[in-house]
Here is the input.
Amino acid sequence: MKKVKLGIIGLGRLGRSHAENIRKIANAELTAVCSVVEEEVNSAVKDLEPGYGSTDYHELLNDKELDGIVIASNSSFHCQMICDAAEAGVKNIYCEKPLAMTLEEINLIKESVEKNGVNVFQIGYNRRFDKSLIAMKKKIDAGFIGKPILIKLMNRDPASMAEYIVKFSPTSGGLVFDMLTHDYDVARWLIDSDAVTVYGMGGVYAYEGLAAVKDIDNCILTMSFANGVMGFMETTRNCTYGYHVEVEVFGTEGSVRMGTTPNKDRLVALNKEGENTECVEWFYEFWEPTFEAELQHFTDCIQNNEQPVVGLMDGYKAVQWAITAKEAVDKRTIVNM
Ligand code: NAI
Here is the structure.
């Protein structure tokens, strides 16, 4: 069977790994790589041997040999790149989360994707491809916990990233926007409902540098979903022991839970001093298999002409929610969706 030819825009922290993962997918071919940073292009061309590299993303959009485009540029460029791709006739697009930064942008994207007949549109909510969360979803749907009552999500980024986060914050949309759209997507997927109200609070507790760019480093949110489920989220940028994510759904008949101490290499190390557990250091290490799995899914959807399990409307709803949640935290008040 003919391989699916993919081009990637963005070769930074995540894009370079996406490019490496595409090379591991048997029915995909890494045909083109692109970044505005010439050294990133040169290094990817040398190490990953795509068909070609470019510093101009329009070159990829106009390449009729490509079957699909993977967008892994900074979030503030997603809208422009998706609309340009759709208008250039690209039929299959994968874009990293968040879909875009404002309501105007997500509306523009929706309009452009629909008007130009984009076929496969996948958004980078990689947690949908996590084996534990998939198992959790199956148990909930099968009635194992009875009627869901409460969903709790914890998302802690390592303190080791602090310096990077302060630099990254002005273009990422900030803590709620950048980090919590993953959690919201997981929540609405697991309990099959959308939030209707959100209340939040947060602040700068660890990194003064974030205050200068009007961002925060810790927050909590409570929300209610249309189906009556209660939701709770907590997030931080200053987890000193590593990267830590947990999810629990509690229901009338039981509970399903993903997450214990995030042991590095899933190892429990004991000696005469007791237990000494090193933890996972950052998000990529924790979610690694999901990044290849999501691009495998994108490739298969293109090849088999199927719709992805996580698409345009999921990206749309997560941004809509993030705007509401950010307002709730900024004003410390309840906001209706
Ligand atoms: P980064 O800053 O490390 O890399 C951005 C890349 O985009 C660079 O290669 C840059 O040259 C390229 N780029 C920017 N403008 C461009 C243009 N006009 N033409 C071509 N290339 C251009 O950013 P990072 O951390 O890799 O994040 C990228 C995206 O991935 C963001 O949207 C971020 O939210 C998302 N992300 C998702 C994660 C997940 O868990 N799914 C984790 C980390 C990031």
